[in-house]
Amino acid sequence: MSEFVEVPGGRIAYEVTGDATGPLVVLAPGMGDLRTAYRHVAPALAAAGYRVVTTDLRGHGESAAGFASYTVGDGADDLAALVRHLGGGPAIVVGHSFSGGTAPLLSVREPSLVRGLVLVAPFARPVSPNPVMKLMARLVLSSPALWGMYYKNLYKGPRPADFPAHLAAIKTNMRERGRMAAARTMGLDTKPEMAGLLPQVSVPALVVMGAKDPDFPDPRAEAETVAAELGGPAEIVMIDGAGHYPHQECPAETTEALLRFLRQVAPTGDGVSA
After folding, report:
1. Which GO terms describe its molecular function (predicted)?
2. Ordered domains of the chain (ranges, CATH)
3. Which of 124, 195, 203, 249 has its CA 20 to 30 A from that of 107?
């Protein structure tokens, strides 16, 4: 069931499943996606005793559109508001792609709210697109149809059986007023807030990367760079055969990696409720 937390300029949609007394795990999707991106992962985390929260990004899903800005910093503020609304955590925050930048930024800005990070195919560093890349990004993010074509191309592993329905839901959502513009703004964000940030992250982190992720010239090298720059203990899990969406292409392997990390950082029954 959808619930909402009010933030300056609008509201953020989320859904809670699992053990109400278990450690809090917040799952944030990437740009141009919905919180149902975690539909093949969240049930297993909930069954393992965690309080699992999936959230829509601002401008996406059931969250409000029409915000004044859509930066990585805005996303971190939204996550902070959500964790506080849910009792203050501390939470393990899972961020994919764009949210792979908001999650570590949150941990630096609000360290009391975060006890661990999982960064899935993260854009966790500033980006400097050349003019051709900027033009392509504007084109891809100009319509739901073009975004859908690009989104499909980011899957290099097996697509789940319900992929057509998920993609149709994304495109339907993107046709709503203000949502395509929100995704476009996020996609063109150069993420200046991320400059020099990763060394300030002190909580344990897991970097999950699809070995065939087309968003990075060398996915393993990107994962290793992010892990090396993080200031706290970090490990890497490469998902063979997966592209940019390992949590959808290879959910069993991704869930196994998540649960292994969660049990290390926030074991259920440890006396800490969230």
Report:
1. hydrolase activity
2. 3-265 (3.40.50.1820)
3. 249
